[in-house]
Automatic annotation (TrEMBL):
Source organism, top-level taxon: Bacteria
Domain Flagellar basal-body/hook protein C-terminal: 198-241
Record organism: Enterocloster hominis (ex Hitch et al. 2024)
Keywords from the UniProt entry: Bacterial flagellum, Cell projection, Cilium, Flagellum
Family classification: Belongs to the flagella basal body rod proteins family.
Protein name: Flagellar hook-basal body protein
Intracellular or extracellular location(s): Bacterial flagellum basal body
Protein backbone atom coordinates (compact mmCIF):
# COMPACT_ATOMS: atom_id res chain seq x y z
CA UNK A 1 0.00 0.00 0.00
CA UNK A 2 2.86 2.36 0.72
CA UNK A 3 4.18 1.84 -2.82
CA UNK A 4 0.84 3.14 -4.08
CA UNK A 5 1.33 6.29 -2.01
CA UNK A 6 4.80 6.83 -3.46
CA UNK A 7 3.70 6.20 -7.05
CA UNK A 8 0.71 8.57 -6.87
CA UNK A 9 2.69 11.23 -5.00
CA UNK A 10 5.56 11.10 -7.49
CA UNK A 11 3.03 11.48 -10.30
CA UNK A 12 1.63 14.60 -8.65
CA UNK A 13 5.08 16.09 -8.16
CA UNK A 14 6.14 15.38 -11.74
CA UNK A 15 2.94 16.74 -13.25
CA UNK A 16 3.14 19.85 -11.07
CA UNK A 17 6.66 20.46 -12.34
CA UNK A 18 5.53 19.93 -15.95
CA UNK A 19 2.58 22.27 -15.41
CA UNK A 20 4.85 24.98 -14.01
CA UNK A 21 7.07 24.62 -17.08
CA UNK A 22 4.14 24.88 -19.47
CA UNK A 23 2.87 27.95 -17.61
CA UNK A 24 6.30 29.57 -17.89
CA UNK A 25 6.34 28.87 -21.64
CA UNK A 26 2.90 30.43 -22.03
CA UNK A 27 4.00 33.49 -20.03
CA UNK A 28 6.89 33.97 -22.48
CA UNK A 29 4.88 33.64 -25.68
CA UNK A 30 5.66 37.30 -26.44
CA UNK A 31 9.31 37.24 -25.29
CA UNK A 32 11.55 37.72 -28.33
CA UNK A 33 13.90 34.81 -28.97
CA UNK A 34 12.48 32.71 -26.10
CA UNK A 35 12.86 28.94 -26.51
CA UNK A 36 10.30 26.60 -24.86
CA UNK A 37 11.34 24.09 -22.20
CA UNK A 38 10.30 20.48 -21.68
CA UNK A 39 10.72 18.09 -18.77
CA UNK A 40 12.38 14.79 -19.66
CA UNK A 41 10.78 12.07 -17.53
CA UNK A 42 11.82 8.57 -16.61
CA UNK A 43 11.13 6.06 -13.82
CA UNK A 44 13.05 5.64 -10.60
CA UNK A 45 14.08 2.06 -11.51
CA UNK A 46 15.40 3.05 -14.91
CA UNK A 47 17.33 5.96 -13.46
CA UNK A 48 18.76 3.73 -10.73
CA UNK A 49 19.99 1.21 -13.29
CA UNK A 50 21.63 3.95 -15.34
CA UNK A 51 23.46 5.33 -12.35
CA UNK A 52 24.59 1.94 -11.00
CA UNK A 53 25.50 0.11 -14.20
CA UNK A 54 25.65 2.74 -16.90
CA UNK A 55 22.94 0.83 -18.77
CA UNK A 56 19.59 1.90 -20.14
CA UNK A 57 17.38 -1.19 -19.71
CA UNK A 58 14.43 -0.99 -17.33
CA UNK A 59 13.32 -3.37 -14.60
CA UNK A 60 10.11 -4.86 -15.93
CA UNK A 61 6.91 -3.14 -17.02
CA UNK A 62 5.20 -2.50 -13.71
CA UNK A 63 4.01 0.88 -12.47
CA UNK A 64 6.97 2.66 -10.86
CA UNK A 65 7.78 5.99 -9.34
CA UNK A 66 8.47 8.69 -11.96
CA UNK A 67 11.23 11.28 -11.72
CA UNK A 68 12.58 14.09 -13.87
CA UNK A 69 16.03 13.53 -15.33
CA UNK A 70 16.54 16.97 -16.83
CA UNK A 71 14.90 20.00 -18.36
CA UNK A 72 15.32 20.27 -22.11
CA UNK A 73 15.12 23.50 -24.11
CA UNK A 74 13.92 23.29 -27.71
CA UNK A 75 16.46 25.40 -29.57
CA UNK A 76 15.67 26.28 -33.15
CA UNK A 77 15.07 29.19 -35.49
CA UNK A 78 11.78 30.98 -34.87
CA UNK A 79 10.14 33.35 -37.39
CA UNK A 80 11.71 36.79 -37.77
CA UNK A 81 9.33 39.75 -38.00
CA UNK A 82 9.79 43.41 -38.93
CA UNK A 83 9.58 45.99 -36.15
CA UNK A 84 11.09 49.04 -37.82
CA UNK A 85 12.93 49.83 -34.57
CA UNK A 86 16.57 50.85 -35.05
CA UNK A 87 17.83 49.10 -31.93
CA UNK A 88 16.09 45.78 -32.61
CA UNK A 89 18.36 43.00 -33.91
CA UNK A 90 17.62 39.41 -34.91
CA UNK A 91 19.88 36.43 -35.56
CA UNK A 92 19.06 34.22 -38.52
CA UNK A 93 21.04 31.06 -37.87
CA UNK A 94 22.88 29.58 -34.92
CA UNK A 95 24.33 31.50 -32.00
CA UNK A 96 23.53 33.93 -29.21
CA UNK A 97 24.10 37.60 -28.50
CA UNK A 98 26.53 38.15 -25.62
CA UNK A 99 25.30 40.37 -22.78
CA UNK A 100 27.58 41.57 -19.99
CA UNK A 101 25.62 41.96 -16.77
CA UNK A 102 26.74 43.23 -13.40
CA UNK A 103 27.01 39.67 -12.08
CA UNK A 104 28.33 37.85 -15.12
CA UNK A 105 27.89 37.11 -18.80
CA UNK A 106 24.63 36.05 -20.40
CA UNK A 107 23.65 34.59 -23.76
CA UNK A 108 20.35 35.38 -25.46
CA UNK A 109 18.45 35.35 -28.72
CA UNK A 110 16.37 38.29 -27.51
CA UNK A 111 17.48 41.24 -29.62
CA UNK A 112 14.98 43.79 -28.25
CA UNK A 113 17.76 46.22 -27.34
CA UNK A 114 17.75 49.84 -26.17
CA UNK A 115 20.33 52.63 -25.95
CA UNK A 116 21.25 53.79 -22.43
CA UNK A 117 22.17 57.31 -21.37
CA UNK A 118 25.85 56.65 -22.04
CA UNK A 119 25.19 55.49 -25.59
CA UNK A 120 25.70 51.77 -24.99
CA UNK A 121 23.42 49.20 -26.54
CA UNK A 122 21.73 47.23 -23.74
CA UNK A 123 19.21 44.49 -23.08
CA UNK A 124 17.04 46.19 -20.43
CA UNK A 125 17.30 44.58 -17.03
CA UNK A 126 20.19 42.35 -18.07
CA UNK A 127 23.25 44.29 -19.25
CA UNK A 128 25.34 45.66 -22.11
CA UNK A 129 25.46 44.13 -25.58
CA UNK A 130 29.00 43.04 -26.36
CA UNK A 131 30.93 43.54 -29.57
CA UNK A 132 34.40 42.37 -30.57
CA UNK A 133 35.82 45.54 -29.03
CA UNK A 134 33.77 45.50 -25.83
CA UNK A 135 30.39 47.09 -25.02
CA UNK A 136 28.67 48.26 -28.21
CA UNK A 137 28.45 52.05 -28.42
CA UNK A 138 26.02 53.61 -30.90
CA UNK A 139 25.60 57.28 -31.72
CA UNK A 140 22.18 58.79 -31.10
CA UNK A 141 22.25 60.36 -34.57
CA UNK A 142 22.06 56.90 -36.11
CA UNK A 143 23.93 53.75 -37.03
CA UNK A 144 23.60 50.76 -39.32
CA UNK A 145 24.18 47.06 -38.71
CA UNK A 146 25.13 45.00 -41.74
CA UNK A 147 24.05 41.42 -42.38
CA UNK A 148 27.49 40.32 -41.20
CA UNK A 149 26.95 42.00 -37.82
CA UNK A 150 29.36 44.89 -38.47
CA UNK A 151 28.20 48.22 -37.06
CA UNK A 152 28.64 51.36 -39.19
CA UNK A 153 28.18 55.03 -38.39
CA UNK A 154 26.24 57.47 -40.57
CA UNK A 155 29.26 57.92 -42.83
CA UNK A 156 29.68 54.15 -43.26
CA UNK A 157 32.68 54.10 -40.99
CA UNK A 158 33.15 50.71 -39.30
CA UNK A 159 32.68 50.95 -35.54
CA UNK A 160 32.55 47.39 -34.20
CA UNK A 161 31.00 43.98 -34.82
CA UNK A 162 28.22 42.38 -32.81
CA UNK A 163 29.65 39.44 -30.88
CA UNK A 164 27.71 36.24 -31.50
CA UNK A 165 28.79 32.91 -30.01
CA UNK A 166 27.63 29.31 -30.18
CA UNK A 167 28.07 26.76 -27.35
CA UNK A 168 29.46 23.31 -28.10
CA UNK A 169 26.69 21.78 -25.96
CA UNK A 170 23.31 23.52 -25.79
CA UNK A 171 22.05 21.10 -23.13
CA UNK A 172 24.65 22.31 -20.61
CA UNK A 173 23.50 25.92 -20.74
CA UNK A 174 21.92 27.29 -17.56
CA UNK A 175 18.47 28.77 -18.14
CA UNK A 176 17.63 32.17 -16.61
CA UNK A 177 14.69 34.53 -16.91
CA UNK A 178 13.66 36.44 -20.04
CA UNK A 179 15.19 33.94 -22.44
CA UNK A 180 18.75 34.36 -21.18
CA UNK A 181 21.30 31.60 -20.56
CA UNK A 182 24.56 31.13 -18.73
CA UNK A 183 27.54 29.11 -19.96
CA UNK A 184 29.26 27.25 -17.16
CA UNK A 185 32.81 25.96 -17.02
CA UNK A 186 31.93 22.85 -19.02
CA UNK A 187 30.69 24.81 -22.04
CA UNK A 188 32.99 26.02 -24.82
CA UNK A 189 31.86 29.09 -26.74
CA UNK A 190 32.91 29.67 -30.34
CA UNK A 191 32.39 32.92 -32.21
CA UNK A 192 30.11 32.48 -35.23
CA UNK A 193 28.92 34.77 -37.99
CA UNK A 194 25.24 34.17 -38.84
CA UNK A 195 23.08 36.70 -40.65
CA UNK A 196 22.03 39.65 -38.49
CA UNK A 197 18.94 41.71 -39.26
CA UNK A 198 18.40 45.26 -38.01
CA UNK A 199 14.87 46.48 -37.38
CA UNK A 200 13.64 42.91 -36.89
CA UNK A 201 13.06 40.54 -33.97
CA UNK A 202 12.99 36.79 -33.67
CA UNK A 203 9.65 35.72 -32.26
CA UNK A 204 9.18 33.40 -29.31
CA UNK A 205 9.48 29.72 -30.15
CA UNK A 206 6.39 28.95 -28.06
CA UNK A 207 3.35 27.56 -29.91
CA UNK A 208 0.49 28.80 -27.76
CA UNK A 209 -2.01 26.18 -28.97
CA UNK A 210 0.39 23.33 -28.23
CA UNK A 211 1.27 24.70 -24.81
CA UNK A 212 -2.37 25.19 -23.81
CA UNK A 213 -3.17 21.63 -24.90
CA UNK A 214 -0.18 20.25 -23.00
CA UNK A 215 -1.10 22.25 -19.89
CA UNK A 216 -4.63 20.81 -19.90
CA UNK A 217 -3.31 17.26 -20.34
CA UNK A 218 -0.86 17.65 -17.47
CA UNK A 219 -3.51 19.21 -15.23
CA UNK A 220 -5.82 16.23 -15.81
CA UNK A 221 -2.99 13.82 -15.06
CA UNK A 222 -2.24 15.77 -11.86
CA UNK A 223 -5.89 15.55 -10.80
CA UNK A 224 -5.96 11.81 -11.53
CA UNK A 225 -2.93 11.24 -9.31
CA UNK A 226 -4.58 13.30 -6.59
CA UNK A 227 -7.75 11.17 -6.76
CA UNK A 228 -5.67 7.99 -6.64
CA UNK A 229 -3.88 9.28 -3.56
CA UNK A 230 -7.22 10.00 -1.89
CA UNK A 231 -8.54 6.50 -2.69
CA UNK A 232 -5.39 4.87 -1.31
CA UNK A 233 -5.69 6.92 1.87
CA UNK A 234 -9.33 5.89 2.30
CA UNK A 235 -8.39 2.24 1.77
CA UNK A 236 -5.69 2.54 4.42
CA UNK A 237 -8.13 4.07 6.89
CA UNK A 238 -10.70 1.35 6.24
CA UNK A 239 -8.07 -1.36 6.70
CA UNK A 240 -6.90 0.22 9.96
CA UNK A 241 -10.48 0.39 11.26
CA UNK A 242 -11.12 -3.27 10.38
CA UNK A 243 -7.93 -4.33 12.12
CA UNK A 244 -8.95 -2.31 15.17
CA UNK A 245 -12.19 -4.29 15.44
CA UNK A 246 -10.35 -7.61 15.68
Amino acid sequence: MFSGFYTAASGMLMNQRSLDMAANNIANVKTSGYKPKRLVKTTFNEQLVRQMNGQTQGLGQGSTISIGTREMTTHGQAPVVDTGQTYDLAINGDGFFVIQGTDGQYLTRNGHFKRDEEGNLILPGVGQVMGDGGPVYVDESGFRVGADGIIYDNEDGELDQIQIVEPDDYDNLTFYDNGTYGAGGGVTLTQVYPTVYQGKLEQSGVNLNNEMTRAMEVQRAFQSCGKALTIIDQMNQKTANEIGKL
